[in-house]
Design brief:
two-stranded antiparallel ribbon, single chain
Length: about 70
């Protein structure tokens, strides 16, 4: 049984990075849990956002996440 203060570490099957945030659901099969960053990328790609702009958006998300952690 998972305790409330345990961190559930997962590995994303798309990017192979470790993550602890709640997973996103892959748009590819609607059942595979993936890291939030890959979930964001899939969502942005689905609306036609270029890879370069995706990178900018992801960096903005990371900078705001770092600010909240400080």
């Amino acid at each position: 049984m998972k305790k409330n203060n345990e961190i559930n570490e997962r590995i994303c099957p798309i990017c192979n990075k470790k993550y602890t945030a709640p997973p996103a659901l892959s748009r590819i099969d609607n059942s595979t849990p993936i890291c939030p960053e890959c979930g964001t990328r899939q969502a942005l790609e689905s609306i036609g956002i270029s890879f370069e702009e995706q990178e900018q958006i992801i960096e903005i998300i990371h900078s705001h996440t770092r600010e909240r952690a400080d």
